Automatic annotation (TrEMBL):
Belongs to the glycogen phosphorylase family. It comes from Caballeronia grimmiae. It holds the Pfam family Phosphorylase. One of its GO terms (cellular component) is cytoplasm. It comes from the Bacteria. Keywords: Carbohydrate metabolism, Glycogen metabolism, Glycosyltransferase, Pyridoxal phosphate, Transferase. InterPro entries: Glycg_phsphrylas, Glyco_trans_35, Pyridoxal_P_attach_site. The modification N6-(pyridoxal phosphate)lysine is found at K676. SUPFAM superfamilies: UDP-Glycosyltransferase/glycogen phosphorylase. Its EC number is 2.4.1.1. GO terms for molecular function: glycogen phosphorylase activity; pyridoxal phosphate binding. Allosteric enzyme that catalyzes the rate-limiting step in glycogen catabolism, the phosphorolytic cleavage of glycogen to produce glucose-1-phosphate, and plays a central role in maintaining cellular and organismal glucose homeostasis. Its cofactor is pyridoxal 5'-phosphate. This is Alpha-1,4 glucan phosphorylase.
Length: 833
């Protein structure tokens, strides 16, 4: 078989002897894995069998690097950056791993020799949907950058058996299907039963003096769950560094023998086992109302406790004194989900390792740093005291003590200001008493960062104002970034090659090099190459759209794209209102000259978020009417692309001409989709919100379509008593669009369907959709105008890519390393390991 490959690839004159050998070795290994790991043989192997065989082969190559990395870290005692996150939305792994190892061509040739198409195998992979959206995807981008920058790092999270649901659209409505990503096995993970920890729940505490007279607290949990490590390798780009993503899976502690039980006890024991295993069963969607709260808190504590125990074990293995913990681990809390870590580390250091409170507190504060991701009040986590106490009584005692000492400091700094004390307390005493997780994270950390300049500023001025006054030095900004490996090289290979040819390939690990593109922004030959690539990407997306939803889309239309979670603050309904207005305009005036557009939406709504689901129904309803109206054929199309996830993002981001970033100013912390679009040459239409502000600064205002109220104006208008009706009265097109919806035009005559949405907009409109409508519509007119000047549009597109360097996650991770973690790179050399 290998000889066969050698002859076939040798026939290709461009193939070097080395490539032939590498390709042949890869092919041998694929076949060996197919047989010995899967018990299959080539004649009957399915595409999925081959995918697995190739994945195992690639994993083996990563494991060699992983072992070399782990050994180097432990010998050199390097500081390890630990990224704690309840979500890691890592996307499909095979393509990215081939790319980072630099063996994509070898694999393609080896598969070709087998009569297989690599792209078809890549398409077979189920992506681990272990995240909701932006926050989980950010964590995944950061792991890529950490490994690529050769920083010793571990990602810690939860191995959900069911990730984010799969979305189907039926009769225009979202339908959720359970995600079964593990059904056919996961080639990337290594389950390590020997790396496991016990995590306690419930029970009570006992306070007593020990032999030397120190007060010791013993927590006697009511039950315990075992966390087992499931590891996935995270390969750096063009380096030998391979880091670890360690996800915890819950198991029952006791195995039990049938004869030890009478029947009743037996089923009780089985029940207990089932109960323990439900802990890591399912990822909770964002934006859900109350359901499943208890389990979610249990999940958070479970993965945090396992992760901290794991760090302590790593210290023990290397014989490092526990007092040096903060010199060996920098622990980043990705939002408040893991913030219970502050109390858990204190417990482990005081109760288990018997350190003094002051020593433990100093370690804790120097270890942790906290990233805030939202200013939305409903998204700031709190847990009711009874719930917290019933789950973790000892941790609640520790939180009380942290709070007691902290509030003493507050009183010293601001004497007589009891209102401030109440505002800053870790315990919310208004209404039902609750633990405020953001306050716990802030008090227990040495650094607190927002995720874009504007967001960090608002954080200091609003939700964290008291804390920023007390600890100004603790607050900083680290603007988010995304990895150019996955979001340019892997998803847009045509663009990547053109960039290499034009400016060299250093941009792949130093995205600021894209700046050199600006010199080609007026070169007609380059324009042509640029447009050809963009057209190919659009044609590829059009084909997928045809296959998945059966809508014909002309790749020469302007692709106007909004893909992200469906949420009122992201305002997909503002987009829909504009489409209706435009459609009505085109119907009224058949000769109207405008840019032919295809509006493409994608995104999931939380299963319990009725308004978001109704917004999806509005979009599909508009699509149904618009796409079937002969009066507007060729001028306007609307597509709702189902089940938006990382894999589908690979097709969508590179095919967009226009990136919709229309959140109400002040509500989107950063956004990262906006960055993926920009790198791939889309222009942005957006508000001054999140990282849009910086995107516009980098691109230049002349290369960005700005509209809408500013964060300050949004606040002002709310304070002055916002009246949405007033905007309807002042705008005929808006009134007409709303009336069309009310009359059932997009709900097959049903005049009730959209009533909740209309009532909300007309009477509350909490996200100022109607206030921004006129400016948005006017801005879209400028977009259409600009689109008609092909040369100018191409130029702006090139400039956007050229100036996107800042938004690489490499830059973001460098900032975390220097300003927060004090973590340094270490070179891993596979040859000398
Ligand atoms: C990047 C990304 C997001 C975040 O998109 P925003 O536009 O920043 O909200 C959400 N989901 C997926 C699958 C992504 O890749």
């Amino acid at each position: 078989m290998a000889d066969d490959l050698a002859t076939r690839v040798r026939a290709d004159a461009s193939t070097t002897a080395e490539a032939v050998t590498k390709g042949a070795a890869l092919l041998d290994d694929v076949i060996r894995n197919l047989i010995s790991r899967q018990g299959r043989y080539p004649d009957i192997a399915s595409a999925h069998d081959w995918y697995l065989a190739l994945a195992y082969t690639v994993r083996d190559r990563m494991l060699a690097r992983w072992v070399a990395s782990a050994r180097t870290y432990s010998i050199q005692g390097m500081k390890v950056a630990c990224y704690l996150s309840a979500e890691f939305l890592i996307g499909p792994q095979l393509g990215n791993n081939l790319l980072n190892l630099g063996i994509e061509d070898d694999a393609r040739k080896a598969m070709f020799a087998l009569g297989l198409d690599l792209d078809e195998l890549l398409a077979v992979e189920e992506e681990p949907g272990l995240g909701n959206g932006g926050l989980g995807r950010l964590a995944a981008c950061y792991l890529d950058s950490l490994a690529s920058l050769q920083i010793p790092a571990i990602g810690y999270g939860i191995r959900y058996e069911f990730g984010i649901f799969d979305q189907e659209i039926r009769d225009g409505w979202q339908v959720e299907r359970t995600d079964k990503w593990l059904e056919k096995g996961n080639a990337w993970e290594i389950i390590r039963p020997e790396v496991s920890y016990y995590v306690g729940f419930g029970g009570h505490t006992e306070h007593a003096a020990d032999a030397s007279g120190h007060l010791r607290v013993r927590w006697i949990p009511a039950r315990q769950v075992k966390g087992v490590a499931c590891d996935m390798p995270m390969q750096g780009f063009r380096v030998d560094t391979c880091n670890l993503l360690r996800l915890w899976k819950s198991e029952a502690v006791e195995s039990f023998d049938f004869e030890d039980f009478n029947a009743g006890e037996y089923y009780e024991a089985v029940h207990e086992k089932v109960h323990s295993e439900t802990l890591s069963k399912v990822l909770y969607p964002n934006d859900e109302p109350e359901i499943g709260k208890r389990l979610r808190l249990a999940q958070q504590y479970f993965f945090v406790s396992c992760s901290l125990q794991d760090m302590l074990r790593l210290m023990d293995i290397t014989g490092t004194p526990i007092e040096d913990f903060a010199e060996h681990f920098a622990v980043q809390l990705n939002d408040t989900h893991p913030s219970i870590a502050v109390a858990e580390l204190m417990r482990l250091l005081i109760d288990v390792r018997e350190l003094s409170w002051d020593a433990a507190w100093s370690i804790t504060q120097r270890t942790f740093a906290y990233t805030n991701h939202t200013l939305l009040p409903e998204a700031l986590e709190t847990w009711s005291l009874p719930l917290f106490n019933s789950q973790s009584p000892r941790l609640l005692e520790i939180i009380y003590e942290i709070n007691r000492r902290f509030l003493e400091d507050v009183r010293r700094a601001f004497p007589g200001d009891e209102e401030r004390v109440a505002r800053m307390s870790l315990i919310d005493e208004t209404g039902g008493r609750k633990v405020r997780m953001a306050h716990l994270a802030t008090v227990g950390s040495h650094a607190v960062n927002g995720v874009a300049g504007l967001h960090s500023e608002l954080l200091r001025q609003t939700v964290m104002r008291d804390f920023a006054e007390m600890f100004p030095e603790r607050f900083l900004n680290v603007t988010n970034g995304v990895t150019p490996r996955r979001f340019v090289m892997l998803s847009n290979p045509g663009l990547a090659q053109l960039l290499d040819k034009t400016i060299g390939d250093e941009w792949r690990s130093d995205l600021s090099r894209l700046g050199a593109l600006a010199a080609h922004a007026d070169d007609p030959a380059f324009h042509e190459a640029w447009r050809a690539i963009r057209r190919d990407n659009k044609a590829a997306l059009a084909l997928r759209i045809q296959k998945t939803v059966g809508i014909d889309v002309d790749p020469d239309m302007l692709f106007d794209v909004q893909v992200k979670r469906i949420h009122e603050y992201k305002r997909q309904h503002l987009n829909a209102l504009y489409i209706i207005a435009l459609y009505r305009r085109l119907c009224r005036n058949p000769d109207l000259v405008t840019a032919p557009r295809c509006f493409i939406f994608g995104g999931k709504a939380a299963p319990g978020y009725a308004m978001a689901k109704l917004i999806i129904r509005l979009i599909t309803g508009v699509a149904e009417v618009v796409n079937h109206d002969p009066a507007t054929r060729g001028r306007i199309k609307v597509v709702f692309y189902p089940n938006f996830n990382v894999k589908h993002g690979h097709w969508i981001y590179p095919a967009a001409d226009l990136s919709e970033q229309m959140s109400t100013a002040g509500k989107e912390a950063s956004g990262t989709g906006n960055m993926k679009f920009m790198m791939n040459g889309a222009l942005t239409i957006g508000t001054l919100d999140g990282a849009n502000v910086e995107i516009r600064e980098e691109a230049g205002p002349e290369n960005f379509f700005l509209f809408g109220l500013t964060a300050q104006q949004v606040e002002d208008s709310k304070r002055e008593g916002y009246r949405p009706q007033q905007y309807v009265e002042a705008n005929d097109e808006l009134r007409d669009a709303l009336e069309q919806i009310a009359q059932g035009r997009f709900s097959r005559g049903d005049t009730n369907m959209f009533r909740p949405l209309l009532d909300n907009l007309l009477h509350h409109d909490p996200f100022l959709v109607l206030a921004d409508f006129a400016d948005y519509a006017a801005c879209q007119e400028r977009v259409s105008e600009a689109w008609r000047d092909v040369r100018q549009w191409t130029r702006m597109s090139i400039i956007n890519t050229a100036r996107s360097g800042k938004f690489s996650s490499d830059r973001a991770i460098q900032e975390y390393c220097e300003r927060i973690w004090d973590a340094r790179a270490v070179r891993i050399d596979l040859a000398h390991a």
